[in-house]
Design brief:
Length: about 375
């Protein structure tokens, strides 16, 4: 779900795709709200996990557009991965540290009040899972459940997709459009099979890895077709109908979600070049602001929700549970809080780390050449 903005020498990004990513990040936050509310029971919000499939396709498109032609040597691959590391890891590490601190505090409480709840550093927050999360391999090792910072499994899968894409591009394995078509069709077929068997795509572990790689390959294919001028003319006029179909699939759930990735691919293709009615909406200032904060919001929101959930659990044990309307009010307040924290994280961690990484790339002058 990441792209490089305002980096000298890179292909300009598509504003509408930036805005789409920002809106999708808010959708994920609503999906993860853990307390009773009308948001949580809304059919559209319950399909929010499909935003991750949209992220994978967006990433494939944007990475192929920005870096594809540059990955012609092993050294270029190394510099590409260096840049991605500083784009993703610093803020991710800070959020993971917050969750580790939370577990450490919980461990201290257990020492004084045995049996107050689930054991610290156990289950999805085990030390084994922590080791995998530290190296961003939790999405490759196929844990049965999400671990630590729950949404970060998709970040781990994206790292795998980056590496495979860079290696395949360098080795010349995806120079042929036909090869990309076959890879995307195979991936989408596997994802459709998962949806038909499980009745959902809210799956991690090996199915999550398949979702990620299939989505990324599909995004790369869409970019190839767009750059070659091989997309159907007039695709921009279908933006709102395709978006409506995608949201309808998300609300219906069940086997129908097999249609979600292809619809996402068509939606992304229709927004290329920032033309069309939906593109104009997503290119607006509010959507671009969300786009800037999208990664921070995606990474920061779960630790914040975990802390609030722990507080609410204690209140509920004391007889102070929330009604759905109170949950709605709390959700609105938390969204404002998350906006502020994401803005702060973006300004103080994410963007400075990206600039530092760009300034200290090995052989920076060589890359510019």
């Amino acid at each position: 779900m990441r792209d490089d903005r305002a980096v000298p020498g890179l292909v300009p990004h598509v504003l509408a795709l930036d805005g789409l990513r920002g809106v999708a990040a808010v959708w994920v936050v609503l999906f993860h709200l853990p307390w009773p509310s009308h948001f949580r029971t809304a059919a559209l919000v319950q399909g929010g996990y499909l935003a991750v499939d949209l992220f994978f396709i967006l990433s494939g498109f944007v990475i192929a557009r920005a870096y594809g032609a540059r990955l012609d040597s092993g050294r270029a691959v190394g510099l590409f991965l260096w840049r991605r590391c500083f784009r993703i890891y610093p803020l991710y590490a800070v959020a993971l540290a917050v969750l580790v601190l939370q577990q450490a505090l919980k461990l201290g409480l257990e020492a004084g009040y045995p049996g107050i709840g689930p054991t610290a550093f156990d289950g999805p927050n085990s030390l084994t899972a922590l080791a995998a999360n530290v190296v961003l391999a939790q999405g490759w090792l196929c844990f049965a459940t999400a671990t630590w910072n729950t949404p970060s499994w998709s970040t781990s899968v994206e790292i795998a997709a980056y590496g495979l894409f860079a290696a395949a591009r360098w080795a010349g394995l995806i120079r042929s459009t036909r090869t990309l078509v076959l890879a995307a069709l195979l991936g989408l077929s596997c994802v459709a099979g998962l949806a038909l068997v499980h009745g959902t795509l809210d799956l991690i572990g090996l199915p999550g890895l398949i979702r990620g790689l299939a989505g990324f390959a599909t995004g790369v294919l869409v970019e190839r077709l767009a750059s070659a001028g091989q997309l159907p003319p007039g695709l921009a006029r279908l933006q709102f109908p395709v978006l409506a179909a995608f949201l309808l699939v998300a609300m219906l759930g069940g086997p129908a979600v097999a249609l979600a990735p292809p619809l996402c691919a068509v939606l992304v293709a229709s927004l290329d070049r920032d033309r069309g009615p939906l593109a104009r909406v997503l290119s607006g200032a509010w959507a671009q602001h969300l786009a800037r904060l999208s990664y921070a919001l995606y990474i920061v929101h779960f630790p914040v929700l975990a802390v609030i959930k722990a507080v609410l659990k204690r209140a509920e044990e004391a007889g102070g549970g929330l009604t759905p309307w109170q949950g709605d009010a709390l959700a609105c307040g938390v969204l404002v809080l998350l906006w502020g924290l994401s803005w702060l994280a973006c300004r103080t961690i994410e963007e400075p780390a990206r600039r530092w990484g760009a300034a200290h790339m090995p052989g920076r002058r060589g890359l510019a050449a």
